[in-house]
Specification:
The protein is mostly helical and 206 residues long. The chain has nine helices and two strands.
Length: 206
């Protein structure tokens, strides 16, 4: 397909596509003559991924570049690439107290989760616990464990849908679920909370 068709299929303006090409975010098409190139479905997929990360994920182009570098990594084991892709989606300036970090480490150990000791997600969770403490709310262990149990079920389901035979698609899907799946879980949680509140404290209103 020509660049105009690529623009229509991906819903990305031609000028933006050309910018991504110049910046190396989008691989070049197959040259046809001196000034024209043909593109294929891989370019459509890449553009949709970039658009999702920028528009819905709120990532800067510099951060998108880091994510795409992990998506394109071919030399490392898939598990390591997925972990690096996760890391690229997390802010660099995370902080957390020693107490919350220890609590997270104990939780990970209790569940026997195979997680890198330096995983930034450990600090991300610890920082979230600290944020609750700062406003005077201590997340009790039983509720934290409920969250962990639910997270384990969700994670197992997500990973089971990934194909080891489609490395590129698997990493792309992981990035998208990590960057954009949060709002889905948040909305489902709020819907479930409304239902649980209605059962416990009142009645359901249309």
């Amino acid at each position: 397909m020509w660049i105009a068709e690529l623009s229509r299929q991906s819903d990305v303006p031609v000028a933006t596509i050309k910018y991504y090409l110049r910046e190396g975010l989008l691989p070049p098409g197959a040259a046809v003559g001196a000034t024209r190139s043909r593109y294929d479905e891989k370019h459509v997929r890449r553009l949709r991924l970039i658009r999702a990360l920028v528009e819905s994920g709120g990532l800067s182009l510099a951060r998108v570049r880091s994510v795409l570098a992990e998506v394109d990594e071919e030399s490392r084991e898939l598990h390591d690439v997925l972990g690096a892709a996760h890391g690229a989606l997390i802010p660099d300036d995370l902080t957390a107290t020693v107490e919350s970090r220890l609590r997270v480490d104990e939780l990970v150990a209790a569940y026997d989760w195979q997680v890198y000791s330096e995983s930034p997600d450990r600090v991300l969770l610890a920082g979230a616990l600290d944020a609750l403490e700062r406003v005077g709310y201590h997340l009790e262990d039983d509720l934290l464990e409920t969250y962990a149990n639910a997270a384990a079920v969700i994670a197992d389901a997500e990973i089971s849908h990934l194909s080891p035979d489609d490395r590129q698609g698997t990493v792309e899907a992981t990035v998208l679920l990590t960057a954009l799946g949060g709002p889905v879980l948040l909305a489902l949680r709020r819907l479930a909370q409304q239902s649980a509140s209605a059962r416990r404290f009142g009645s359901v209103h249309p």
